[in-house]
Amino acid sequence: MSKILEVKNLVKKFVKANGDIHTAVNDISFYLEEGEIFSFLGPNGAGKSTTINMITTQLSITSGEILIDGESIVNNPIAARQKIGVVAQHNNLDRGLSAFENLVYHGKYFGMTQSAAESKAHELLRDFGLADWKDDYVKSFSGGMAQRLKIARAIMHEPKLLFLDEPTTGLDPAYRKILWQHVLRLNKENNTTVFLTTHYMEEPERFSDRIAVYNTGEIKAIGTLAELRKLVPSESIIYVTLDKIPLGLEFRLSKFQTIKNVVKKDEKTLTVYPHDSKKALNEILSYLDDSQLKLENIQLSHTTLDDIFIHLTTENKGA
Ligand SMILES: Nc1ncnc2c1ncn2[C@@H]1O[C@H](COP(=O)(O)OP(=O)(O)OP(=O)(O)O)[C@@H](O)[C@H]1O
Q1: Residue 295 CA to chain centroid, in angstroms?
Q2: Ligand 1, residues 18, 49, 58: which to mutate, most atoms within 8 A of Cβ?
Q3: What is residue 60's three-state secondary structure?
């Protein structure tokens, strides 16, 4: 496998309105192998779009280097742009063109013939439920319609490297499914590499080969889901919800042999990281019973990407 994207010591600093310098991306390095689906996850304002915007040549770099297919995007931005497709967060459709024209002009810019571009545009407009709107100006489109057209445009020319910046925001479940059908087909048939940001954790959990968790300008962890699971205190979690958590309960439960650690999730729920989940569950139940504490709910679950994300991006790490 070869590296389709290499990001080396990338930094972005912004000057804020009050003159302060804000470092949105703080010396990050990572790479993407050709053909992989990579998810870049982080809380709001972490710097994900800033990173994508630099890689896709829409935003200047403060320092560092970005290579697409081995070539610097600063030295040759035109070559870089030919290889990528981007669903940006903002609406960057041409509002003065119809939906059909947006797609056909885009396809032709990327070297498609008129007839190939027209036939692909018809296919994508049909798949994304826009066939009846093909001649309408995009300025009349709803947010969800514009998002669907942005997705169709990004995949028109079947790019080598596809950037999806929160692509399913504003899409209903049926269109989410259609988006993923197209993306997975491109990935399988054309070996298209996918760089995804999203706040819907089930998408990276289902589709990613590797995941990076990113916060305050830095990559906190990177790897497969199985590798990231090893970074949380245990592979399963028990959530214990009581009508009220009495003082010191966390501490008392954390002393059990079967339990690694306990942290307060919220006012009513404790997150318990067990050594042995079944034994811990039984011990917790009998302890609560003996102590006459009112249990509202107890749930044992496999550690999800949500749990990993929260663990890696919040101060109270529970380990
Ligand atoms: N043009 C700009 N000028 C000043 N600060 C900016 C600019 N663009 C982004 N920022 C700041 O950089 C930080 C990162 O923003 P960015 O949009 O990359 O975050 P994000 O991870 O994509 O967030 P979200 O999940 O909310 O989309 C934020 O604090 C934001 O306010």
Answers
A1: 35
A2: 49
A3: coil
**pLDDT digits (tens), the chain, 319 positions:** 799 999 999 999 999 999 999 999 999 999 999 999 999 999 999 999 999 999 999 999 999 999 999 999 999 999 999 999 999 988 899 999 999 999 999 999 999 999 999 999 999 999 999 999 999 999 999 999 999 999 999 999 999 999 999 999 889 999 999 999 999 999 999 999 999 999 999 999 999 999 999 998 889 999 999 999 888 888 899 999 999 999 999 999 999 999 999 988 888 999 999 999 999 999 999 999 999 999 999 999 888 899 899 888 875 433 3
Helix ranges restricted to H, 230-304: 249-254, 277-290
Instruction: Look at the domain 233-302 and name its fold.
Output: Alpha-Beta Plaits (3.30.70)
Distance of alpha carbon 215 from alpha carbon 26, whole angstroms: 10
> Could you give the ipTM of this predicted complex?
0.96
Ligand 1 centroid vs 108 CA: distance in angstroms?
Answer: 32
Sequence ranges of the domains in the chain: 33-50+77-228, 233-302
Helix (H) or strand (E) holding 106: helix 99-109
| Ligand 1 shell residues, CB under 6 Å | 14, 16, 22, 24, 42, 44-50
Q: What are phi and psi of 92, to 5 degrees?
A: -110, 25
Kindly give the distance from the C-alpha atom of residue 21 to the centroid of ligand 1, in angstroms, as a whole number.
13
Which CATH architecture group holds 33-50+77-228? 3-Layer(aba) Sandwich (3.40)
47 Cα: distance to centroid of ligand 1 (angstroms): 5
What is the distance in A from the centroid of ligand 1 to the CA of 306? 22
